[in-house]
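Thread: Newbie trying to understand structure tokens

Hi all, I'm a second-year student working on a class project, and my supervisor (Dr. K.) asked me to get a predicted structure for one chain before our next meeting. I've only ever worked with sequences, so writing a 3D structure as a token string is new to me. If someone could post the tokens and maybe explain what I'm looking at, I'd be very grateful. Here's the chain:
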Amino acid sequence: MGSMSIWHWVIVAVIVMLLFGRGKVSDLMGDVAKGIKAFKKGMAEDETPPPAQPVVPPQPQQPVRTIPHTAETSPGTAVPASHLPGGEHKTI
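---
Reply by user tm_fold:
Sure, no problem. This is what the structure looks like when written as tokens:
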């Protein structure tokens, strides 16, 4: 009694056919088949790779501009214009 034989499955199938009728079972199987086809189509659409992005070459980086170091200035002396943006003079 522990295992299900072929006769158990035949009886179950006959009871299902009697309860639902032949038309209902075929409609149910058709709906299942449509669902499987829709699922496969959806999976196939997901597997298509996205459109390739155009490759843009990297822009060369500008060198870092620094202020040149000079000897320490004493207070009250002017910093040369070449060391300040815009050619300004500044007194320290």
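A couple of things are worth pointing out once you decode it. The two ends are 103 Å apart (CA to CA). The first helix runs from residue 6 to 47. Feel free to ask follow-ups in this thread.
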